[in-house]
Amino acid sequence: LVLDVAGGAYKVEGEAKARRVPAGIGISLLTADELRLDATTARIAFFPDGGSSGGRVRLAQAGRHYDVRVDWLTGRVTVAE
């Protein structure tokens, strides 16, 4: 998964077209430094064995936020307010 925080877009690596996050929703990303592509774009990798690189995507709007967390060991995705 590749996220462009500044552009408010995301895509599955290998897909040609990115998808936009709806206007007014802010994105921030916490991931390993080696997965950063530049200052505003980074990825969370998912592996065939079920694991992942791990990370957290925060979606925020109007004082509320949701954290989408990816566990590095299991690749499990959870959402928390």
Task: Characterise this structure.
The protein is mainly beta and 81 residues long. The protein is built from no helices and 8 strands. The chain has strands at residues 2-4, 9-11, 19-20, 26-30, 41-43, 55-61, 64-70, 77-80. Strands 3-2-1-5 form a 4-stranded antiparallel beta sheet, with no helix packed on it. The protein has a 4-stranded antiparallel beta sheet with strand order 4-6-7-8, with no helix packed on it. A hairpin with a 2-residue loop joins β6 (55-61) and β7 (64-70). The two termini are 21 Å apart. The model has no long low-confidence stretch (mean pLDDT 94).
Secondary structure: elements and pairs:
Blueprint: E1 2-4, E2 9-11, E3 19-20, E4 26-30, E5 41-43, E6 55-61, E7 64-70, E8 77-80
Antiparallel strand pairs: 1-2, 1-5, 2-3, 4-6, 6-7, 7-8
| Rg | 12 Å
Tell me the total number of β-strands. Answer: 8
Number of helical stretches of at least 4 residues: 0
End-to-end distance, in Å? 21 Å
- The shape is globular
